[in-house]
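3.2 Worked example (two chains)
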Amino acid sequence: MKTYSGWVIFAAVMLLIVGVLNIIWGIAAIADSKFFVQDQKYILSNLNAWGWITLIIGVLQLVAGFSLWSGGLYGRLMAIFFASLSALAALLSIPAYPFWSLAIFALDVIVIYQVSVFGAAGIEEDDRSPERVQAARRDVVR
């Protein structure tokens, strides 16, 4: 059985939260919700296109979050890549909703930091074989 660092679990949870927030933002942008700043100029395309881009990134972040939770190298690489992609998309979509975009950017930076610094920390084999448990009990009795 493998045990994982609390920081990796924290990064996975943060990535899942950011993924859900990006999905909500994407659906709202596709539906032309009224809380976006109206008549803004975007670097690329329009609000509807950014909604689809953000929705797809959000779904990929959910996949990356669950993969990171499972603890493999692939999950760590996916987490860093999709958090970086989301951070870039958040910066490019600042005209639509500035505070939301900056909050998503900050959460993405936290995820990138946690995964890159603590990504492999604490991943160890937990050897609780019956022989080791019995030996530990004998040591305590003496």
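3.2.1 Second chain
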Amino acid sequence: MELRVKRAPRIDLEIAVPGDKSISHRAVIIAALSNGVCTLRGFLPGEDCMHTVNAMRALGVRIEQPEPDTLIVHGKKRVLSPPKGEIDCGNSGTTMRLLAGLLAGHTFESRLVGDAGLSRRPMDRVIAPLRKMGANIVAEGPEETPPLRIYGGYVEFVIAYQLPVRRSKAPCSSQGFLRRERPPSRSPCRRETTQS
């Protein structure tokens, strides 16, 4: 069989691509810490990202999902509530890593658990820099594996930390974390307006 394809004179269509997994995790957390209501469109409603959504709900954040790829997140002004039980991260290493850094600076105790697969994954590359910042994190599994018990409290504003490997998903860089106890005197962002 012979097929002949001719060039179309014009292609007029719209393509909807699925949301990005990495951005979806982080967008939910940032919105949860905001000072108001955030609408997230293009959210990836996969299992891993939904574990982050449910984790934030467990921390007292109200999150509505009117459509599979749309979230309405009611920000808690950086003040999360103590969870009533363990926070299940499923098989999402991103959820556990990001929450470890987030919860280290809060004033309550929390415990992050995962499924059998996640429980075999070492978290030392995340725990080490957080401990250097002053975080109190205990990996209850062998060789720094989950579950992670986090005793929240004060963490340092900035540290110098050299990653032991080239590629790491540790939730910090050489610039470290901002201290919740000592917010900056002025916002790093400003809105500029012009008058005509």
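3.3 Remarks
The first helix runs from residue 21 to 32.
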